[in-house]
Write a structure and sequence with these properties.
elongated, about 5% strand, mainly alpha, two-stranded antiparallel sheet
Length: about 170
């Protein structure tokens, strides 16, 4: 069994304090929590700042995509249940559904199933194009292979932490 905090050769890497100025040769000892948190905060802030310029929020974009994604129209409860775990708070998605209904981008049928209006679909399509452009900015200089490798590493770290928490 490989000891915690070790590479595949079995050597243990010392944990150094977070250092935003760490050189490449120091990165192996940097805390993942600091760097993944900084990446999350920075990317999320950038996306939300750009969306705010057109009076849209990131959770509104999530809801538009979720309502559009399936063969069957989702209920309000399904949308709220699926997106609340990634939202900032337990009531955010329910509020977003209300905002989008008020804005006329969503409508509910007699069974309270949600669907995009024509205006909502046009907004979703514009937002998707904008998010694709934002992704290109954030991923500049990073190949798809490097991106996939980074996500695989993060998945492994998440699984390791979940496994350690469960024991």
């Amino acid at each position: 069994m490989t000891p915690p905090n070790s590479d595949t050769s079995g050597t243990t890497t010392d944990q150094a304090p977070a250092d935003p100025a760490a050189t490449d040769d120091m990165l192996a000892s940097q805390p993942i929590g600091y760097w993944s948190g900084l990446a999350h905060d920075t990317v999320t802030r950038h996306l939300r700042d750009v969306l705010a310029r057109i009076d849209v929020t990131q959770p509104q974009y999530w809801v538009l995509n979720r309502v559009n994604s399936g063969a069957t129209k989702p209920s309000r409860e399904e949308v709220v249940g699926q997106l609340t775990p990634i939202a900032d708070g337990p009531y955010d998605i329910a509020r977003v559904v209300d905002q989008l209904l008020h804005r006329g981008w969503l409508e509910a049928d007699d069974e309270q199933r949600l669907r995009l209006t024509d205006t909502g679909e046009a907004a979703r399509a514009r937002l998707r194009e904008m998010m694709t452009e934002l992704r290109a900015v954030v991923h500049k200089g990073i190949s798809d292979e490097e991106y996939v490798a980074a996500l695989k590493v993060l998945r492994a770290i998440i699984a390791n932490a979940q496994s350690a928490s469960a024991s």
